[in-house]
Amino acid sequence: MDFVVSSYTPTLEALLKPRARVIPNGQDPRVLIVSQPSSPYAINCPIPGTTTEAGIVMSLVGESKPLDDANGTIQAVLEGMETHEWVHLACHGAQNRKDPTNSAFILHDGHLTLAELTSHDLPNADLAVLSACQTATGDEKLSEEAVHLAAGMLNIGYKSVIGTMWSISDYVAPDVMRVFYTVMAEQVKAGGELQPAYALHEAIKVLRRSSGRGGMNDFLRWVPFVHFGL
Fold first, then answer.
1. Taking the model in full, what pTM does it have?
2. Which of 168, 184, 180 is closest to 205 using CA atoms?
3. Would you kindly state where each structural domain of the chain is located, as residue ranges?
């Protein structure tokens, strides 16, 4: 990663689709920020760092709408995704390998599945940041197929998706997002082409340098974060 910026795609079709950016150069995007530190549907797995993470994102982006705890219902999130160009989901993710359409984000009142997402029109979709565990985890039995949440978000219209290949630390994610959104805000202000893959690359470089045991050896902390799409 000292020489290249990596970006992935679940299928070639995902890159071949015409996907023009929906945010005019220099205009602040509308960002939906969802945080679920203690969803009743993940009662034994609190993630208090999502509250910190949401606050960081709000401080760095322009026009934002927070949906935390009880406000983060399935209906509220769906309505917000229809009107916001960017969505940041800081919550638990659940991958269903038997039926990928039932892979879901765990919200306050239940699971928001990909099947439910695909039934909604998302004309403003641009960037989805899936700050949850295993949102880009594949299936070794289906090595030629995209069966994860990140791929599903691309399929429903998002141009760029940030996902995770395995479980991530509740304390690491806020640090990654602080650098990522700082770089994204600079790109928006500059009015040029948005490059989320480069923003994530910068965030991972910072995390790698600051990781314990020398950074390079502590790869479980910084390797999981990956970019899909444009």
1. 0.90
2. 180
3. 12-229
